[in-house]
Design brief:
The protein contains 5 helices and 14 strands. By secondary structure, the chain is of the alpha/beta class. The chain is globular and about 50 Å long.
């Protein structure tokens, strides 16, 4: 039987992230929550959901040995989505609050730049309007504003956008003072600062668009039991 829906693997312990899994199901995906490398590699799409902070999310990714999986997927053109607090870990450095104050720690380094504590620079969270990049394929004409909950954000885009041999990432911004990066679409790698499942219909529409963009490879069984619990 031909595959009818893309399979999306959420990085996490089985039985968690029920709300996200249900949203992906409504968006047209078959969903499993897993920390198994082969399942993460073989799924049509992979999602890294945010935890409390970018640093905590990064430590979770490392504990599952999933940074290597992300690298292999991106190198092979296989879609990966980072959402919410997972956004900041993709940059070179991010803030960590310690007893001695705020210090910079190393991130994944997928893009140059620094994820700071948004509260420290007076950047507002909550429901905010989006200024989508002209080249965005996922964010134009969403039916409303999006909700931002992650405490870490990026105020400057430092990637060289004029490299002849590669397509520049599409970078979208919040309509705030100061503005911060709302999303980056970089080939198979998509990262959003906003929380899709907390953003109502605009977040649902974003998820539908991302799921619809996934190629169905047939690498995993057509029928996947959703191993999640309802929240």
């Amino acid at each position: 039987m031909a595959q009818e829906q893309p399979v999306v693997a959420i990085l996490g312990e089985p039985g968690t992230f029920g709300e996200l899994a249900q949203a992906l199901g409504r968006a047209g995906a078959q969903v499993l929550v897993t920390k198994t490398s082969n399942e993460l590699l073989d799924a049509d799409g992979m999602i890294i959901p945010g935890h409390t902070s970018s640093l905590e999310t990064y430590r979770t990714v490392q504990s599952f040995d999933a940074e290597r999986v992300v690298g292999r997927r991106v190198a092979g053109g296989r879609p990966v989505l980072f959402a919410g607090a997972a956004f900041g870990m993709l940059f070179e450095t991010m803030d960590d609050t310690t007893s001695a104050g705020t210090v910079e720690v190393k991130g994944m380094g997928e893009w140059p730049g620094h994820a700071c504590k948004l509260a420290a620079v007076g950047a507002p969270l909550g429901v905010q309007q989006l200024v989508p990049a002209q080249e965005s394929s996922l964010l134009h004409n969403l039916p409303g504003a999006l909700r931002y909950k992650a405490e870490d954000g990026v105020l400057r885009w430092e990637f060289e956008q004029n490299i002849d041999y590669m397509r520049a990432p599409a970078v979208s911004w919040t309509q705030t003072t100061p503005p911060y990066i709302a999303a980056v679409e970089n080939g198979p790698l998509t990262a959003v600062q906003f929380c899709p499942i907390a953003s109502g219909e605009p977040g649902e529409e974003f998820m539908r668009r991302w799921v619809a963009s996934l190629p169905m490879t047939g690498r995993m069984p057509v029928v996947v039991e959703n191993n999640v619990e309802e929240n």
